[in-house]
């Protein structure tokens, strides 16, 4: 149990550093109404999680990658805060594109990642 917690913590450190760095790079000029950083990070996370899900790896390492790394790299809560903001501001088109695009492309990228992951085996 201690090993599992330690592995998640190691993955979390790299996930949060990756998210902060990539988010800062994408939002450098904040010219978008669309939350490009969160969308991009979540789509990358979906693809990587698809690959991880297809690999035959042991539990502690799986926890490090899936829960620690990808769990802290992506963010469902930020996604929802941004959607609520769009609804409150009556930006329904942005809401539909963001919520729909995230769900549809997220599922497609999980599948694509799984295909790549099985190909790697």
From TrEMBL:
Family: Belongs to the fluoride channel Fluc/FEX (TC 1.A.43) family.
InterPro entries: FluC
Places the protein is found: Cell membrane
Listed transmembrane segments: 6-22, 34-55, 61-82, 94-116
Superkingdom per UniProt: Bacteria
Gene giving rise to this polypeptide: fluC
Catalysed conversion reaction: fluoride(in) = fluoride(out)
Membrane topology: Multi-pass membrane protein
Its job: Fluoride-specific ion channel. Important for reducing fluoride concentration in the cell, thus reducing its toxicity.
Pfam families assigned to the protein according to its UniProt record, in alphabetical order: CRCB (PF02537)
Keywords of this entry: Cell membrane, Ion channel, Ion transport, Membrane, Metal-binding, Sodium, Transmembrane, Transmembrane helix, Transport
Name of this protein: Fluoride-specific ion channel FluC
Binding site for Na(+): 71, 74
Regulation: Na(+) is not transported, but it plays an essential structural role and its presence is essential for fluoride channel function.
Native species: Sporolactobacillus mangiferae
